[in-house]
Structure formats: C-alpha cells, structure tokens
Amino acid sequence: MAQNASQLEHFGRALVDLGLLHEELVVLDPDVAASTKVTYFAERFPERFIRIGISEQDMIGVAAGLAASGKTPVACGFAMFMACRSWEQISSSVARPGLNVKIVGSHSGLSPSADGDSHQTYGDVAVMRVIPEMKVVVPADAQEAVEALGAIVDAHGPAYLRLSRGATPVVYDEGCEYTLGRANILREGSDASVVANGVMVPMALEAAGRLSDEGISVRVLDMHTVKPLDTYATTKAAAETGAIVTAEEHSIIGGLGSAVAETLAVERPTPMERVGIMDRFGESSRSYSALMAKMGLTSDAIGEAVREAVKRRN
Amino acid sequence: MTSVLRGISRRHKIPLSTLKRNAQILKEFNLIAYGDPPNFSGVELTELGRFISSLTVGEEPTVLGNMVQTRSGYRPLGIVIKDLRKTVLRMIAEAGSGHLGASLSAVDILAILYMIKMKHDPKDPSWKDRDRFVLSKGHAAPALYAVLAEAGYIPPDRLMTLREIGSQLQGHPDIKTPGVDASTGSLGQGLSIGVGMALASKMDGSGSRTYVLLGDGELNEGQVWEAALTAAHHSLDNLTAIVDRNGYQLTGRTEEIKAMDPLVEKWRSFGWEAMEADGNDPASVLDALNACDLTTSRPSVIIAMTTKGKGISFMEGNKYSRKTPDAQELQRALKELT
C-alpha cells in the first residue's frame, strides 16, 4: 500500500473510455480543465467538450439543458464551487426535474491544502446528500474513482462524484468490485467497525492493522456511496461488532458520520465515534499530510476513536 | 329580420332570396344571430362576428385574424388571446394565489410562440426536433398552462387545479407537465438551460430553435449575464431570448430598485442581436421573432415592451403583482374581456 495514484489522472483517462462507449456523453469545464484532467477528453472529443468559463452556476444550467435534450453531461470543477456555490442550481435546475447530469467535485476536502480554506471543502457531501434523488459517491482511491464514474454514468439521474486533488494511497491494487450503494468490506473484524470513505479508507486499514496488534479486531468498510447509504452493511456491522467509528475528510456535521448516525439511531443504537473535520475551517499548508494531521484526520485519530468506542461498548 | 333584409334588397337591388340564404350561412358560421320564425328578433353580430367585422372594416388582414389551430379547432388568434387572459384570471382566482400581473403581461408573447411561431406537436410532446420553450420567469406559469391547454397539451378541465395538492399544475413550471420543457421558478436559471438546449441542437444538427422568456426584474440575477456570455461565445443563433419588459418587479419599478436600462445596449455589448418590440402587440412580437430567424452566428434578444396586468384596466401596473382578484373583481375583469 506504499504506492500512490492520482484519482483525477485516472478519472480523466476513464472519461475518454466512456466517451467512446457513450456517444451522448459531453463534458463541461469552468476553466479548470488542466486541474481536473478533462483535457484528455477535450483532446479526443473536441466537439463534445464545452468551455463555459468561470461560471459554475451557469454551467449547471447549461448541463441541465443538454440533459433535457438527451445528452449525458459530466460537469467537472472544484468541489467547493460545484457542490456548494451551485447548490441551488443543482437542486432546482437538475435534481428537481431528475435530469441526467453528473457533477464531479475535484480538489475536495483538505486536498487543495496550499490554496487554503477558500478552496477546501468541508460541506459538499452534506449539501449534496440533502437533495432528493441525488446519488453521492466518495471513492477511496484512483481505481475506485474509475469504477464509480462508470457506475454513475450507467445509472440514470443526477449524481455527485467527489474526488481528491493529488495522488492518494492505492487501496485496490488488484481491481475493484464496485456496486453503487453497496459498501466494500475490506477487512473483517469482531470488536469494532470503521466506516470510512475517500482517503480515510487507507488510514482506516492502517489503524486496523495496528489495533489488531493490541488485540482489537476491527472491520473496515469502504462506504464509497454516502447516498443511497448501505444501511444493511451499516446495521450488520453494528450488530456484529458492537462499536462504530466513521472516518471522512469532511465535517463531522452532515456527511458520512451523520448518515451512519442517522441510520443507527433509528435501526440499532450503537456506541459510535466520528473522525472528521471538527466544525472548523482549515488553513494553508504546503503539505497536505501536515494539514490532515493538524485537523485530526490521521490513522492515529481513527485508532483512538476505535479504542474509545470499544470502551463504551458495555 | 325579414324587414331588414327587404330594406337591403330594395336599396341594393339584390334578390331577397339571395340575402336570406346569405343570412342563413352567416348564422351557421356563428357570425350573426337572430331568432327563429315566427318570433323574428333583431339581427345581431355574435362575439365572433363582431371580432371578424372589426378586423375587416377598412383594415388589411391582421395577425389577430389569423386562424390558429387550437384544441377546439381553428379559431382567430385575437379571440384565443382574449380567452387565454380569461383563463389566467379564473385560474389564479381559483388557486387563491399567483402572479396575475406578470402572467397577463406575457400572454400575447406566449400565444404568438405556441400558436404561430414554434414548431411543436401537442400529440408528441417529446418530439426530438421540436422547438423548445423555457419560461425563465416561472411565476408566469398560469399563462403558460393556459396556452398549453389551448394548444392541446393539457386537458382544459385540469386548469382549475392550479397549485392544488396532487395537481400536475405546480405553482411554477415542472417538466412533469406535458409540454413544459424546463423546470423553472428560481429566477435567473432559465437562460442557462436554454443555452444547453441550443448547444444540443447544434451538436445534433437539428433545426430546433430554443426560446427563453425572461422577466425584466429577473435580469437582476447574475446568472442571466453569465448565460448571455456563454450563448454569445458559442454563437448560438438558434437561441432567442425575450425579455418581458413590463417595468415592474415585486416591490416596485425596476428602474427604482436596480436600474437595468439601457437594455438593448447592454445585450448588444454582450454580443447579442437586440431589438425592441411591442410585447402586447402580437404583430410586433411576430415581426421581431421572424427577424431573429435571420440572425446568423449570434443569439437574439427581443426587449418586449409590455404592460403588467395587460388587458384589464384596473389591473394594469403593479397592483396585482401578487394580489388575487376576489369574486367581484374577477367578474369585472372578465367583463372587460368580452
């Protein structure tokens, strides 16, 4: 797991493959093509690549119009300006009429670390999740990003795909089974479960490895789809392991932790801890991992949360 | 009756039998009315007859006299437009809320689009090569529903369910309603949607045109101007925007709230072909729409000068921006339209 790979690089190349398969697929760009890697698609299909300029809200509307006329638009920009700035356009122009628009938010979480907190996204999953019928997907690594993209393009209707900026640790080095809405169980365990997504998945695996040395057996779920949440795997993990920790590169308010807590509070109340951004803004950091550490998003933090949750388990 | 005809016969030396036959035909066409024998009453023009005669007296044929296809056969556009205004009044009175003034100002534009200008088929609402219409000023939904019903998309008996729970006719347009091409209601978003439709039409090599109706107050929204730039950049000459320039927004005059003039110059500077028209004169609207067809390599906008609450004297201006007419006001208003 030492090796890293870029979600965006893989995503950009996968878009070209999907473009070959789906003639109606078009890509929209708010002037960040070089960063989101949709340049590969632009080179291969210039007539299906639409420059909108720096106007994400307009871009969402244009995508809605294209979808209403039978196209499959993939609108790619920075997560903060796609999901958050254009939230109401996504809700009203895209989701309300149930149009087939795929929204890709790159540079999510703390991954644009040097840019600072104007660009860092802590609430995109929360605001996308609240929109009826919206699918919300947060892949763990580059390979899963490719699979997730294919899955949301195949599933009709609006979807949000959240991607990280730089290279992240490889989780799926031997291919990735991917079904929308079904968690991947990456490690079995009986004392506690970590439900994670995005770059917190490799951290959860790392924490689980260390905890097993202490005699704590931890199940790790890659909850790549936040909506629709795999409530079956969630309640099963709660029932079988008795303690739950969520881990996400997102505010602990409104994201994966909230989705899991909502499910368990109703279905199976269980001792639970949440690892995530603790209701505060980030800051600039030349090193992504230094910022993650300062904000409490580490495998150590997950390990500590597991010990805490296990302690509360009677 | 017979005495009237006898007088005409004598004066113009036309056989009485010919006049009687002609009168019969006019009656069959529902242009005149008179009682049956033996109780002949006075001859009078029907509503349709009055209308036709008003068009033919010393005038060339007008747009209002065009026979247009409606759900109930071919009818003169002028009468259809009056009926649309009556329907809008009844719908909003029945619903108990809605934007009457802004709906009435847009009736003539909508009628020209759906009854004359646009290529569409009520029997096949999702026909791929149809012209598209986006009501960006979604609060004029009652006017859109009235015209869609007249064209044959919506059964007329559903019109009075506007804004009722479970109704297909939402307070603002929703694509689930047959004939509605875009879900709108949140101001500022419709032009972007229209840009997407026009782009798709170009990509597919379809001759389909897209029309977007904007409110003048709506132009306060920044997204409209983002979309204006996008449309011009992509040379969308298959896109026509129409601004319903009634001069008012919810709380007052547009020029007192956020000045938008000079509008023609603004749109031109954004790369659009821009022109003014009298938005409550169907002939003027049609001329402008036809002119837009001739524009190449850039989108067109018509600044349609209109009167809010058009057609009902005591509703013109901003008084019925959100006010709903009571039963008495409704009757007074309907009377003005007969």
Explain what the structure shows.
The complex is a heterodimer of chains A (314) and B (338). Chain A contains 13 helices and 14 strands. With 314 residues, chain A is of the alpha/beta class. A 7-stranded mixed beta sheet of chain A has the order 3-2-4-5-7-6-12, with helices on both faces. In chain A, strand 13 (244-251), helix 11 and strand 14 form a beta-alpha-beta unit. In chain A, helix 1 packs parallel to helix 8 and helix 10 packs across helix 11 (256-267). Chain B is of the alpha/beta class and 338 residues long. Chain B contains 12 helices and 11 strands. Chain B has helices spanning 2-12, 16-28, 47-56, 77-95, 100-117, 141-151, 190-203, 222-233, 254-257, 263-269, 282-294, 327-336, and strands at residues 32-33, 44-45, 67-70, 73-76, 132-135, 210-215, 239-245, 248-249, 252-253, 273-278, 300-305. In chain B, the strands form 4 sheets. Chain B has a 5-stranded parallel beta sheet, with helices on both faces. In chain B, strands 1-2 form a two-stranded antiparallel ribbon. In chain B, helix 8 links the parallel strand 6 (210-215) and strand 7 (239-245). The A-B interface holds A 26, 47-48, 50-53, 55, 57-71, 73, 88-89, 92-93, 96-97 and B 128, 132, 134, 174-176, 181-186, 189-201, 203-204, 210, 222-223, 226-227, 229-230, 233-234.
Proportion of beta-strand residues of chain B = 5-15%
Low-confidence stretches of chain B: none
DSSP helix count of chain A? 13
Helix content of chain B: 40-55%
Task: Using the coordinates shown, work out and report the CATH topology of the largest domain in chain B.
Answer: Rossmann fold
Mean of pLDDT of chain B: 93
Largest sheet of chain B at a glance?
5 strands, parallel
Number of domains of chain A: 2
Strand element count of chain A: 14
Written as H for each helix and E for each strand, in order along the chain, the element string of chain B is HHEEHEEHHEHHEHEEEHHEHEH
> Strand order across the biggest sheet of chain B?
5-6-7-11-10
How would you write the strand order of the largest sheet of chain A? Answer: 3-2-4-5-7-6-12
Strand content of chain A: 15-25%
Find the count of extended strands of chain B (DSSP E, 2+ residues): 11
**How does CATH name the architecture of the largest domain in chain B?**
3-Layer(aba) Sandwich
* Architecture (CATH level 2) name of the largest domain in chain A: 3-Layer(aba) Sandwich
Mean pLDDT over the full residue set of chain A = 97
* Class by alpha and beta content of chain A: alpha/beta
Could you say how many structural domains of chain B there are in total? Answer: 2
Residue runs with pLDDT of under 50 for 5 or more positions of chain A: none
